[in-house]
């Protein structure tokens, strides 16, 4: 991969040039130097016991004799299908555990806040508290808010250790979808139980039927999407406020040469929320000025960025592959990290500059970094201590070369599914009906969720933007989260003005009428649960089938790289969504697994996977699927407009 095509983002390319001049290695360089194992990339390498690793390559020809098949087995006799399925669902288990451990921390803090034990936090969205309470079968009546919140917190925490029955939020799904899960035996019970059972099933000598393994993986992933991730999103909204549309800026140009720059990187918004408040404290501001800085500039990186962006308008320095590059600007006093997606190379890159990398979570330490642990009962003090560390580092920047790219882009973010509901229908008639009507009448062709990571083995941001621009050009409205959302922000797709510039006539008309962008930023990677809720709301509003699988909708993660992405993809497939992944896919070494995932799953659960690394071809697959669903709903042909008289209206009411 030549430097000219490492990224479509000019700011990233400028920083890669500086990294080269400074002799600093980045993820882009390492991806170029280190080639992936081809058998491992296909998912056909098993290292689940010490008799391995066993590499079972794909067959060289279509038809094989039994003797030839026998040679393509592990030492224990495991077939390529079993090995591939085990590896795939282990990724599901890891991704589910990452999102759900995040949720557990949020639930614990929520409960502590409800009990009045955690200073600095409060219940900010009582209306959402009441809605979540109803879904958890918590009585509201005339009970005090605190009492309701305590019971909500206790019930959410109990979801992790639940052993029987089903997770509470499962009943939010369409009834038809719930029935499919029950018949398949994949309704999630307890979050931790599903992760543990799946890891047990993939131990050497346990579950050796690849179809059974994939169904177990589906149940575990549903414990993420309709469990851990949904709990995290809902409780964060209650604690910090349900996002509403807010203006923000993105890209490395948000860093400031004359201020203390602190970058908040990771996925848990608990400490970042306190850093936002503490940075505005006059004492902290004056301390920064005493060190020669004009002020304190907070910026986000990865999903922590999405969280504080949506609620406070805090600028975003960049997405996953820009984390090293922020330090390479020479302008960052401190990078504060918590969990997930932090590169171990950050500490090594920081040694070449004055930046201090500060780890804050007991689960995620890093050699060469400073550890200041976030403890929620003393969160405000911890936040101020971290800010002082950054401020004290500011004078060390003096006299050293600083290069901050000029690129910044305006964007509008904060589209929770409740906000979309309000924007479409207003305060008194909030409804998804205008969206459904415009899908039915053809102005909007369908809905796409384009989410996920960046991957250093592809051109940074390119696949996201190629796919999303093609979708909105074809009148498909796009919901986005995570690093994909940030790519859209840098490309100017998260503004209402993007509708007239990039969209087909139908989608442009709808966006301009409502005043929304054609690409709706819905939050961080745990907030993919918002997309599940939005899809369910569309189903419940009527006219587009009885299940998520009936909708003219598709999902994609064209630049995925993490196990969390596999868990997300699997819970969308298990929820009935056609889902396309790019870069690589960990089942391609098994023909039988490919048949199951790309075709067989659709017959049993309504959703299916596809793998297509070319974003243009992947978009075509999504559009074909959307059109197939429109045809099944009878929306492929234009219908004459009919002026209904009263008799015709009464006939409708009778139905």
Question: What can you see in these coordinates?
Answer:
This protein folds into 3 domains: about 80-240, Substrate Binding Domain Of Dnak, Chain:A, Domain 2; about 250-395, 3-Layer(aba) Sandwich (Rossmann fold), CATH 3.40.50; about 415-630, Rossmann fold. The chain is built from 27 helices and 16 strands. Helix 5 packs across helix 24. The strands form 4 sheets. It has a 6-stranded parallel beta sheet, with helices on both faces. Strand 14, helix 24 and strand 15 (about 580) form a beta-alpha-beta unit. The longest helix is centred in the first third of the chain and has 35 residues, at about 80-115. It is α/β, with parallel strands linked by helices and about 650 residues long.
Strand order of the largest sheet: 6-5-4-7-8-9
- CATH class category of the largest domain: Alpha Beta
Question: What's the CATH architecture of the largest domain?
Answer: 3-Layer(aba) Sandwich
Rg (CA only): 25 Å
Sheet bearing the most strands, described? 6 strands, parallel
CATH topology assignment of the largest domain: Rossmann fold
**Strand residues, percent:** 5-15%
Q: What best-fitting shape do the alpha-carbon axes yield?
A: globular
Number of strands: 16
